[in-house]
């Protein structure tokens, strides 16, 4: 079983974790060439957790 290791985002219900230290390596690249980490894009509401699901990016979530 995977254990949460690195938190990258939280909302009203859940805390979201990566299963390894990879926050600096999972990035979003926009059409204009701008790149930022997933955690920054989530915090700035440029993407949603559902986007991670859509592209098959695995994470762990835990109730607060």
Summary tags:
two-stranded antiparallel sheet; three-stranded antiparallel β-sheet; 64 residues; globular; alpha+beta
Fold topology:
Blueprint: E1 6-10, E2 14-18, E3 27-29, E4 35-37, H1 38-43, H2 49-54, E5 60-63
Antiparallel strand pairs: 1-2, 2-5, 3-4
Query: How do the SSEs run, as a string of H and E?
Result: EEEEHHE
**How many angstroms separate the termini?**
20 Å
Oligomer: single chain
Average pLDDT number = 91
Largest sheet: 3 strands, antiparallel
Name the shape in a single word: globular
Estimate the helix proportion, in percent.
10-25%
State the helix count: 2
Tell me how many strands there are. Answer: 5
Report on this model:
The chain has 64 residues and is of the alpha+beta class. It is built from two helices and five strands; from the N terminus they run E-E-E-E-H-H-E. Strand 1 and strand 2 form a beta hairpin. The chain is globular, with a radius of gyration of 12 Å.
């Amino acid at each position: 079983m995977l254990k949460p290791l690195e938190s990258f985002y939280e909302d009203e219900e859940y805390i979201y974790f990566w299963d390894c230290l990879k926050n600096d390596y999972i990035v979003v690249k926009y059409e204009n060439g701008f790149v930022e980490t997933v955690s920054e894009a989530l915090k700035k509401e440029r993407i949603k957790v559902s986007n991670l699901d859509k592209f098959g990016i695995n994470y762990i979530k835990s109730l607060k």
